[in-house]
Every structure is written in C-alpha cells, then in structure tokens.
Amino acid sequence: MSRRLRIPPIPSSEITAESAYISRRAFMRSAALLATPLAAGVGSPLLAAEARSGMALRYADAAAGPAGFNTDEAQTPFEDVASYGNFYEFGTDKSDPARYAGQMTVDPWSVEVDGAVGKPGKLNLEDILAVFDLEERIYRLRCVEAWSMVVPWVGFPLGDLLQRFEPQSSARFVEFRTLYRREEMPGTRSFTSIIDWPYREGLRMDEAMHPLTLIAVGLYGRTLPNQNGAPLRLVVPWKYGFKSIKSIVKIRLLERQPATSWQSLAPREYGFYANVNPEVDHPRWSQRYERRLPSSLLRPNRVPTRMFNGYAEQVAGLYKGMDLSRLY
Amino acid sequence: MGDRSLRLAVFLLCLLPLAWLLYAAAGGNLGPDPAKAVMHGSGEWALRLLLLTLLVSPLRQWTGWRWVMKLRRMLGLYAFFYATVHLAAFCHFYLGWTAAILAEELVERPYITVGFVAWLCMLPLALTSTRAMQRRLGRNWARLHRAVYLVAALACCHLLWQARSDIGEALVYIAAAAVLLGWRVWRHLRGNRLLAARPL
Predict the structure, then answer these.
(1) CA–CA min distance B39, chain A (Å)
(2) What residues of chain A lie within 8 A of the CB of B101, using their CB?
(3) Average model confidence (pLDDT) for chain A?
(4) Distance separating alpha carbons of residues B81 and B45, to the nearest angstrom
(5) CB-facing half-sphere around the CA of B135: CA atoms within 13 A
(6) Is residue A298 classed as helix, strand or coil in its secondary structure?
(7) Least confident of A178-187, A195-204, A226-235, A295-304
(8) From start to end of A144-236, where are the E strands?
(9) Which of A143, A297, A302, A303 best probes binding to B when mutated, by most B CB atoms within 10 angstroms?
C-alpha cells in the first residue's frame, strides 16, 4: 500500500529560485560542452532539452558525484539519449521505447525489497527521493550491441538503498525485476518474443555495493523519461547496458546467483557478469570497437572499446583471479 | 503505358528507398545511429526486392500478365544493388575497411558468412544478366540463375540469425520466401506427376 500518492505541490517561490539556478548551470554546462570537439555543431543538449515543454528540471541542483567518477567526454545529447535505446517491454526497435513508454504509469510507484535482509519492506518513490542525496554522475554507457553513449545521470548509490534494508551476511547476490504490466507494455504482448517476462537482472553483492553502482532517477537534470527506465533504474557503467535494468519494482537479496533474462535466453551470448570486455566477443559480433553516439554517415565515430568500459581502475579488483573469458 | 515508361517508372521507384535514406541522413533524421539505420534499410530492401523478383514468375502464371516479366531483370539487379550497399555500409561503418577484421568476421560469425555467401552468389547472376550473356549461355543461363533460390534461403538465414529475442519480423520474410519457393516446388512436382500420368 502506498501511503503518499502525490508529490506535494512545490511553492512558486521555490520554483523561481530553482529556475534561476538552472539557467546558470545550463549556461556553464553548455559552455563546457561547446569546448569539446564532439559537441561543437550539436549545440547544447541541455538548452535544447529545456526548450521542450513539460519536462521538469527537478534535479538540476544535484551535486556532482565523487571526483574521478565523472567522465569529461562529450555527452550524448538529451534528444538522442531519450529517443534511442533498448527497452524490449515496449518493442525491439530502438525507437519503440520513446514511442510507447508514455503508456507506462509511473506514479504511484514503489519498490519492494526482500530476501536475505533484516528489514524487508516496500519503499515509495517519494520516500526514496526524500531520503537519499542525489548526485550527478556522468558515465559512459556501452551497449552489448556495440554502440555507446555518455549520459549525465542523477541518482544515488545502490549500496545506500540496500543498507537501509540491512542485508544479512548470507546475502551474496542481488536480483532485480522490471515492472511487468501487459496492458501498458506492447512488447510483452508480442507472440514472437522469447523473453520470459518480467525482465530480470542481477549483481554480485560486492558489485551492488560498489560506489560506482547507481540507482538513477533522472538524467540531464530532469526526471528520468519513461523510455529510459522511469521512475528508477540501475546504472552499472562497467557492464553492458542490459545489466542496467530499468523501471525496477522488486529487489531481492539472495544466497545463490539468480537466473537473469538474457543469460537464460542465450547463455553462450550473454553471461551473468557481462563486464565490458573488448577481448571477449559476442559470438555474433566483435566487441573491440563501439560507435559512440551520435555518429554520422561521414564520421561514424568508431572508437576502441576499453576493458570494463574504462572503469578498470575502480572495479578490476572485484574480479581478481577470475577467468573473464569463461565468466564473461 | 509503354514498355519504356513502365520500366522507367519502376527504375525510379526502386531508387526511392536509397533516396529516402540519403535524404534522411543529410537532414539528420536517421537518429543518433545512422550507420545502423543504413545497414538495416539497405539489407531489408535487398531482401524485399529479391522476394519481388521471385514473385514475377508466379505472378505471370497466376494472372497471365506477360508484361511483369519485363521487370524481372531490373528487380533482380536492384536486389543486388541494395545488397552491395548493405555490404559496403558494413565494411565502412562496422569494420572501417580493415581487411583483417573482415576476414575474421567472415570466419567467426556464421551469420556474416551466410550473408556474404549470399552476396557472392548474386554476383555472377548480376554479371550474366545481360541479354548477350543470356544468349551466350543458352540453357545454362537458366540453370545458373536458379542460384537465386539459394540466395533467398541464405538471406532468410542471415536475417533470422540476427534476431535477439523477437523473431517476428524474420518470420514474415521467411513465410513470404517459403510461399514463393514452395509454389515452384509444388508446380514442379505437379508437372512431373502430370507427365507420369500421361498415357504413353
């Protein structure tokens, strides 16, 4: 049961103050962006996004994340992040999520946490937003399909959320589930889809507690668009994008490694770990290069893929002694 | 409509998908990953035109329209043209024209091998598509051009092999190819039976 269904109205005085703050931030960000080669000619994604009506800049004042976590690479414009992606609940085409995810009801929303925890329970989105300090994290996102983006997420470490439910020492893995609501998700009604809904993902406990692992509630300073996994999603920047499960409704702490959607579907192609690794190819395509989006016909923007998506310094230690060509 | 104007109309119609792709790309309307859009677009149109080519003979048999036969060569050549654009886009966007990577992809990725073999099979068909070659090869021309059935099967494999979790789109093409090839098999068998049943 949700206790509070509506976000309390914001006093107008606050809105004015915030928007002044936002425009300053937007100016600084666009100045920074224009200084980078890729952004030149693209314009300021934030300002362009701001021009779209009805999108609240709720999180524009999120603090910058810890030093060293944010990349200064050119960011993928908001329009591209919000119009291109995989969210198979809405269809398999990259544009399907943006076309159909509007049907998904994201308010009210709650996340149930159970399993090997001292205090199982349900948290409403508003409570989550009220409790955790939001940060901006500018991460690379590498899809298993060999394209990539740079996204300024807004969120908080998953570890902070899990701590509240007091994980037991027996908890070794975390399982996540996406919302499964057939009437609002046309992709789940496809007769020819072979995914066993709901979509499931998982992490090892140490991966889940790693400070890079984020629960995102926004991007580009605004509420997460539905097609990007509203109202809250996982972001694990050193793993292929399919690990970063969207629109989470359930989190379960487990003693054994959970079965995850893609791994169950094609274990030869998608492993449980799914760490970005240019040395281990997907059986059907190479993982050595990626197309950093936006790309263009004249400049495909093909860049070499980096081990752990460039986060080796922070996370390589988690996999010491593991044969990553076998445990891909 | 005269022969010439009919052929010209179909010629221009078949150029439309490419024109649209280039126009959308120039206007930045192919999305953030235009490489993928060009890959998919060219591949889909290659297969569609291949299936249209295979539709010509049955259509004549079903309707008695003789004029459709005049379009068969052009449709087939366009299928080859879009397949070539598809291959070139793959080499450009995905491989950066690196021969070593192409060799590796051809050996290690079966769906790419199958797609490439399909293109290779189309190559001699395109080269021998002229009237002069047709005359020169005589009866062998028809035998050689039966390879188009193999190309259709390979192209369907190539598409199906890429599906990640939803094979719906691939099944539509496979069903169309199955009808077109199945019709030929059925006709052939029926023809044989009629021959066999004929009193000596």
Answers:
(1) 11
(2) 286
(3) 86
(4) 10
(5) 3
(6) coil
(7) A295-304
(8) 147-157, 173-178, 200-204, 214-219, 222-223, 233-235
(9) A297
Domain holding B84, by residue range, is 3-197
The verdict on domain A60-317 having CATH code 3.90.420.10 is: yes
CA A241/CA A86 separation, integer angstroms:
9
* Type of residue numbered B50: L
- CB-nearest partner of A92 from B36, B96, B165: B165
Token pair of A14 as six digits: 């606050």
From chain B, which residues contact A within 8 Å (Cβ)? 25, 28, 31-36, 38, 92-94, 96, 101, 104-105, 108-111, 161-162, 164-168, 171
- Angstrom CA distances, B131 to A75, B77, B127, stand at 55, 13, 11
ipTM: 0.78
Residue B199's pLDDT is 54
Closest CB to A291 among B33, B108, B161: B33
Please list, residue by residue across B69-108, b when 16 or more beta carbons sit within 10 angstroms of its beta carbon and e when fewer do. Answer: eebbbbbbbbbbbbbbbbbebbbbbbbeeeeebbebbeee
What residue type is A69 in one-letter code?
Answer: F
CB A74 within 8 A of CB A39: yes
Distance of CA B35 to the CA centre of its chain: 21
Residue A136: the pLDDT is: 95
Domain ranges of chain A: 60-317
Total domains in chain B come to 1
Give the integer Cα–Cα distance in Å for B153 and B114. 10
For residue A302, the cross-strand partners are: A291
Question: Using CA atoms, how far apart are residues A61 and A63, in angstroms rounded to an integer?
Answer: 6
Half-sphere exposure of A218 (CA within 13 A, CB side): 22
* Rounded Cα–Cα distance for residues B85 and A79 (Å): 29
Amino acid at A45: P
Contacts of A261 (CB under 8 A, 6+ apart): A195, A196, A199, A200, A201, A242
List CB contacts (< 8 A) between A76 and chain B.
32
Residue of chain B minimizing CA distance to A79: B32
Q: B155: which 2 tokens? A: 């192209």
Let me know how many helices (H) and strands (E) chain A has, helices first. 9, 13
Of the pLDDT bands very low, low, confident and very high (cuts 50, 70, 90), residue A5 is: very low
Contact A311, A142 (CB under 8 A): no
Helix segments in chain B, DSSP class H: 3-26, 34-63, 72-89, 99-108, 110-127, 131-137, 139-145, 147-160, 168-197
Note the pLDDT tens digit of each residue in A56-100: 677 877 888 887 899 999 999 999 999 999 999 999 999 999 999
Q: What pLDDT, on a 0 to 100 scale, did the predictor assign at position B165?
A: 77
Q: Give A214's DSSP letter.
A: E
Mean pLDDT, residues A154-173 = 97
Indicate the SS3 state at residue A230: coil
What pLDDT does B197 receive?
64
